[in-house]
């Protein structure tokens, strides 16, 4: 009992006691606390009594060299620990001061047991106080625990919970290894997670979701999996175009291992460029944006790829009728260095023969992900990541479904590379510095025998190129001051080089003025700081922060200070309410007309005439968890968009960079709604249910008479349900149903005679330079309000199953099969009023709405071999 | 692999099961509106075309019956009736044509009032712009992006201080009908109308014949181009694209020095590139009212794409016809008549 008593009174009486004046000559000036205590006992014979539960015995200490007595040595080695030496009845007692419980810092890395891959987002906490931290994107954590703490709990989705006994045997940085759960066992989002980062507007998607639920053609797609959550959606059925809370696809910041990506679609957005097999961690921020993120208005999608196995070589091959993928990972030097390589490619062009390609066109895509990580020492680590993805498409003019005038070729490529250095400066300070390179390159060409005129060349060849290139250097530092306060700060510089489309043909330009293709060279600077504070016994969390961004280029300079604030109040029984505000500024604009993800959609910067876009986002949420089984949350949000950019005409996709500033206008947007999420993560039956009720409006001075109108991506209701049932340990069934209200569409109120037709002016435009107008219609639409009509809702039920076959110790077989759109729903892909196929003014024909659907019932199957 | 191929075939078939559906168009409670197109040109007689719109609903088509029973009136700025325009029967006309005898004067305001049975009355007021002063500096046959073109170098003098001039340039080919007229027993006949009689009497003595040229109410629009970065066509599309008309907003004290290109393929009939009819070429340089200009600018966008599909945002056409649809625009113009075809 004495050792637990406050020391003040006892110390006052005993500081002059002879046993604290006893002569003692320390053998070394440096050593652990335990060493000096034991040495004092050995040399002087005076018993020293202490409790290891509050004294960090392995802490390294250094003497000044002037200590000559037991008291002086003890004073020095106990400095800053809140413990004092007191002499009582011929014994020395090491007693706590009258101040409260003492804390000390434990830091380290959390890794997977077998592969030594770092684990992101694992919870670390004291089970008694339930205070702790979350491992950062590099697996690092820093937590302060009370001296009375006897254990630390580590938990994570997909890993077995681990308890580490305290105190630690020595002062080293901790390295925790967690055991992965059975791959077929459903993931667990543990209810013990206590981090402020786990809030309703932040989705940390279990990677298992990518593979758990049925998918179009069986292709695991990260972005489509995110669409299961409330507040997210897509513009078209089964598109990977991610839309968050009424924002456009260009308003999401996509980070692949910290490198921004500008175009995320394969096959016009049908699949995303993120290979589900290569992904380790997916985070989506919808509100309460941490200060380190900036540059986009609606969301941040932060995707981390796998680091590679540090222990053994493993691989995987997956084959389906439409694609093949493979991965290989293993140690280059055991426990020191590892690599991960994945490759996937579509097979349609190879499997179905030349005739198929001639009839329908040729298409191929591939992705390569590579990562190398090297542990330099226990404080330093280096990562090198590389990604390349490419789409190649050829559409012959005489293809069967849609005969054209020209042969078309499209090829677009994404390349990203990053060199990352992480360093543990001290147990409380972690920093990472990243140099990145990102390039998006789009090439297209057209070729035909169509002669423009007698003087023109026999065949017309045109080609266009557009490019986005970024080179950046960033630093992020985390300083865990205490368990109730954590500082994050950093900065960065990005060099942007945008070259929107440069189009050229082999025709003689004649009088046409040769204009240099526009090119933009810009410097973007970023600084941020954020303080995370927990008050009132951790019940109140405050996270004020600010992000400063600046874009400089010739002719314009824009700076933006963006405040961020989040406040959360924890209620009993795993409940909380949270409110947040964030301002985001977007310096880059995407010029796009269609709702499909075209590689020809251009990225252009803010200029002298076009201001940056801004978003002011407010949210209020409530969350309740029932242990680790169920999670329920509800969110209300309101987002005001300022100076958002839209085109006021229909852009020619082949030549749309020409004086683009004259074709865009600024306006405002208003997005608001509520979201509901119910998630069950344990047991044989797991799943997710989400519902979103939302509105998205736009307002531009010259459109719709200056009045608000529904945004093209406005969807009133979105429902997602996904269930997975584990029949046996090696066999699971899954089902998902998605529903989305109809998209807005502008249906004319009236039609009336065309102006030219009414005046007997015939003739058609020269369609070669206006690819849209190749027909003659004798009427004009009278439109009272834009987007006044709703298309039919989109919904489909998909079923799937996964079976583990003939598992041996080293080889596993996995068979995945399913059916997309089981009840063969015809969902609208394109809806058109009139088919626009007439070539003559004189033709009289009925006017109808036509709905073009893409997918009906579609089976899929794939086989995976793992070793 | 063979197995995979079969699965692939299933996939292909499944993928192609996507199809087209006709969707019901919701019934409309809207009523037809009167449609009025009237370009009031300084120095010319008042004209207008009148039609009726169709509310979009089930079972409609794109047939528009001409409205021949409209009451079309030209009023002065203070609402005094100047003239009631009369219907001119022309079976070749797509919309009912109404014409008056009042010559339109520049810098004067007019009100157009049109009553079409079972629709709301249409009214619009417009002020005819001041005369446009254009100097044609030269014309050259040249090429533009692989096309033969005829280049006009215009200098449009600046509008008066504190005003803007909305300039529109366009080119049309007015078709011509060649005919033979014969006089038989002092009566004048057209061969086209009395072919049998002509065949019967053509060799009789005293029959006089001569050729005639009739300008038809039928035009061919000639695509026009510009390379001028100040043209408002840059709000519509690229500089290498073709347009119905080239549009400029000319500010005070700023002369407009620009080049208009018209597609030369249609200039001469019998061109090897296209089946071009005989006619004369009209090139207009107009100063128009702001409302008319706004209409033409949006019309240019809609002509490129009506936008009536879900992938593209629709464009709304501007109108100043209160109570109805269409446009009533004032215009002062300079016209150039070019005769390339041998008649």
From TrEMBL, chain A:
GO molecular function annotation: siderophore uptake transmembrane transporter activity
Keyword NADP (UniProt): no
InterPro entries listed in its UniProt record: Beta-barrel_TonB_sf (IPR036942), CarboxyPept-like_regulatory (IPR008969), Plug_dom (IPR012910), Plug_dom_sf (IPR037066), TonB-dep_rcpt-like (IPR039426)
Gene Ontology biological process terms from the UniProt entry: siderophore transmembrane transport
This protein's record includes keyword Membrane: yes
Main location: membrane
Gene3D superfamilies membership: TonB-dependent receptor, beta-barrel domain, TonB-dependent receptor, plug domain
Membrane topology of the entry: Multi-pass membrane protein
UniProt domain TonB-dependent receptor plug: residue ranges: 221-296
Coiled coil: none
Organism of this sequence: Chitinophaga eiseniae
Highest classification ranks of the organism: Bacteria, Pseudomonadati, Bacteroidota, Chitinophagia, Chitinophagales
Protein name listed in UniProt: Outer membrane receptor proteins, mostly Fe transport
GO CC annotation, single: cell outer membrane
Keyword set, alphabetical order: Cell outer membrane, Membrane, Receptor, Signal, Transmembrane, Transmembrane beta strand, Transport
Alphabetical list of SUPFAM superfamilies matching this protein: Carboxypeptidase regulatory domain-like, Porins
Pfam families in alphabetical order: CarbopepD_reg_2, Plug
Subcellular location: Cell outer membrane
Signal peptide, first to last residue: none
Automatic annotation (TrEMBL), chain B:
Domain of life of the organism encoding this protein: Bacteria
Protein name: DUF4249 domain-containing protein
